[in-house]
Amino acid sequence: MAAPSAAGRCPCGSGDAYEACCGPILSGRPAPTAERLMRSRYTAFAVGDAAYLRRSWHPSTRPDAIDIDPELRWLRLDIIGKEAGGPFDAAGVVEFEAIHRDASGRGVLRERSRFVREGGRWYYVDGDVA
């Protein structure tokens, strides 16, 4: 799936236009919070941007390759809760549900993700899938 038009709604579900939400972050601007990084990573999965997913993954846990299933369609993101992860925090946790559909039907990914901020940038570290 291609990125939405600049004025189109962002896939992360914020309600904002892509150009005012995840677009600049996927293009290189640092995410201001752990939640914004998590939303941008959801958007990267939705639009198939594996390079961004690698860049936003902490080097200590980053996989060698990221395979994005082209048959998987990400439909909706719901933030369940968050702990810390603000602009002045060094770490944060974001719990979310991501609704998706593939050839076998609809599914839900629920994860409690951990993030760290280093050098002014947030990185995804790992997560516990429920």
Characteristic terms for this protein:
single chain; 130 residues; alpha+beta; Nuclear Transport Factor 2, Chain: A; four-stranded antiparallel sheet; 3 helices; 19% helix; NTF2-like_dom_sf; YchJ-like_M
Structural account:
The chain is of the alpha+beta class. The chain has a single domain (18-129), classed as Roll (Nuclear Transport Factor 2, Chain: A). The chain contains three helices and four strands, in the order H-H-H-E-E-E-E. A four-stranded antiparallel beta sheet has the order 1-2-3-4, covered by helices on one side. Strand 1 (73-84) and strand 2 form a beta hairpin. It is globular. The protein starts with 21 loop residues before the first helix and ends with a strand. 32% of the residues are buried. The mean pLDDT is 95. Belongs to the UPF0225 family. InterPro entries: NTF2-like_dom_sf (IPR032710), SEC_C_motif (IPR004027), YchJ-like (IPR023006), YchJ-like_M (IPR048469). It comes from Microbacterium panaciterrae. It holds the Pfam family YchJ_M-like. Residues 33-127 form the YchJ-like middle NTF2-like domain.
